[in-house]
């Protein structure tokens, strides 16, 4: 299939063309630049919601519940699930068929797993390009679910229009979020599994902690804390309303600024990816000289860049 044919079918909203386009950009294959250009020229810009939090907090369950709620209203939804990379194959350890199986037969839902490829923070340049392809396909909503470890929680704020931080009672998540600085990047905080003991205490702690780290000027956003039971579809409308309120707060100027920040992040990720390939291809002689102390790391990097 030629690139022009693929783009025509992509614009016609052919799901198979979407899958092919995503594969092209993820692998940086021939024709991927043309596909990206066509996707980014599309006028439609749906809300992009990043969902992050610690492993076991119920991120996938919450996304599944959000999908069900939005589909009941007639909206189409895409999910980009960023999975840890296999150290052997480089591919995603978790597959999109494992996640959110209840929606697999719904033509209005598209779920795609993408490997983090060992990127710092868990989000690679390929993640951003795959996101652009999904945006150009004119879904009504796009969700990005991160691996929920390391720095990915902070990085998602540079990628998504709205960042949802999922926490649970009883695990010290609220305190850890405060200590790690994650709370500062959250636009909406969801206390999931709110039927567990301590849920109300976590809500109070989060609201109190925000008062310590967030200024309260007339233009500042105070991230709402929403209780939910995603497995029971409870609190889901409240989560969506909080996201919509944040979108209204940002306005066109705020959304434009976030898209520019995303482009900056993509450039940084692409440079990190290229640097990683340079290091992987470094000759044994250069590595030996560095190990012996004949070169500093800065000098070795300068040689590689030359």
TrEMBL record:
Molecular function terms from GO: GTP binding; GTPase activity
Name of this protein: LAO/AO transport system ATPase
Record domain AAA+ ATPase: where: 45-196
Keywords: Chaperone, GTP-binding, Hydrolase, Nucleotide-binding
Similarity comment: family membership: Belongs to the SIMIBI class G3E GTPase family. ArgK/MeaB subfamily.
Organism: Deinococcus maricopensis (strain DSM 21211 / LMG 22137 / NRRL B-23946 / LB-34)
InterPro entries according to UniProt: AAA+_ATPase (IPR003593), GTPase/Isobutyryl-CoA_mutase (IPR052040), GTPase_ArgK (IPR005129), P-loop_NTPase (IPR027417)
Keyword Hydrolase appears in the UniProt entry: yes
């Amino acid at each position: 299939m030629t690139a022009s044919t693929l783009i025509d079918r992509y614009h016609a909203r052919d799901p198979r063309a979407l899958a092919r386009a995503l594969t092209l950009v993820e692998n940086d294959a021939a024709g991927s630049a043309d596909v990206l250009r066509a996707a980014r020229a599309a006028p439609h810009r749906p809300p992009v919601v990043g969902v992050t939090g610690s492993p076991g907090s119920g991120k996938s369950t919450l996304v599944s519940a959000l999908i069900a709620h939005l589909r009941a209203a007639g909206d189409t939804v895409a999910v980009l699930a960023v999975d840890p990379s296999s150290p052997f194959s480089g591919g995603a350890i978790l597959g999109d068929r494992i996640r959110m199986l209840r929606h697999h037969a719904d033509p209005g839902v598209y779920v795609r797993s993408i490997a983090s490829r060992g990127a710092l923070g868990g989000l690679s340049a390929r993640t951003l390009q795959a996101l652009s392809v999904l945006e150009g396909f004119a879904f009504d909503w796009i969700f990005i679910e991160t691996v929920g470890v390391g720095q990915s929680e902070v990085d998602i704020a540079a990628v998504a229009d709205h960042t949802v931080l999922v926490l649970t009672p009883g695990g010290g998540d609220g305190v850890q979020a405060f200590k790690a600085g994650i709370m500062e990047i959250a636009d909406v905080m969801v206390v999931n599994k709110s039927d567990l003991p301590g849920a109300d205490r976590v809500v109070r702690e989060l609201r109190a902690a925000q008062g310590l780290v967030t200024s309260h000027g007339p233009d500042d956003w105070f991230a709402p804390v929403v209780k939910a039971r995603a497995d029971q579809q409870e609190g889901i409308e409240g989560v969506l309303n909080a996201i919509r309120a944040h979108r209204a707060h940002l306005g066109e100027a705020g959304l434009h600024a976030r898209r520019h920040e995303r482009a900056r992040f993509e450039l940084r990720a692409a440079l990190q990816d290229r640097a990683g390939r340079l290091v992987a291809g470094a000759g044994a002689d250069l590595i030996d000289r560095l190990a012996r102390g004949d070169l500093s790391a800065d000098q070795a990097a300068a040689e590689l860049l030359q």
